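Quick log. Single chain, no ligands specified.
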Amino acid sequence: MARPELRTRLRRARRDIDPRRRQAFEQRLAERLARHPLFRNARTLAAYLPVDGEVDPAPLVQRAWSLGKAVYLPVLVPFSENRLWFTRYEPHTVLVYNRFGIPEPEKAHRQRIAATALDLVLAPLVGFDSHGNRLGMGGGFYDRSFAFLRGRRCWRKPRLVGLAFECQRVARLRGKPWDVPLHGVVTEETLYLFGDP
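-> predicted structure:
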């Protein structure tokens, strides 16, 4: 199946999850990841605010705040095409809508962090496979922002972990040369790890 058709099918599948089941799934996957060293050992992590049926990382963000971890949100870079900054996110952070209608911190330039300084990135996704390939919304923002990871011989930080529902898993995604693979994906059923743990 071509990527546009697959993207449409998987986006519909995640939107169609019953709200009560969705909340239970999100709690279950948050508990699963929160127990893992990937989360426990991270001091700085990036999350996102969900749109279009994406897994809501709020339970993980709340857990991170309670443990004194620094949480960051992706923000569109104003002067660079299809790249992200990561800006500090706290309970009182004022949010504004970006050009895609996604909320992001208002004063993004004041508390930025380099992508290389993050320990863990909770990544939204449309689909994934058992090899760590990620199907996103098609803009390439995460691939461009974390392209530096493709050139590394030893996997260092940040670790990219996708948050997904099992209905978003596919048998095989054909990767593109610019794709940045995930280190893992957590779902309501399990935590998939790919490559160097």
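The first strand starts at residue 44 and ends at 46.
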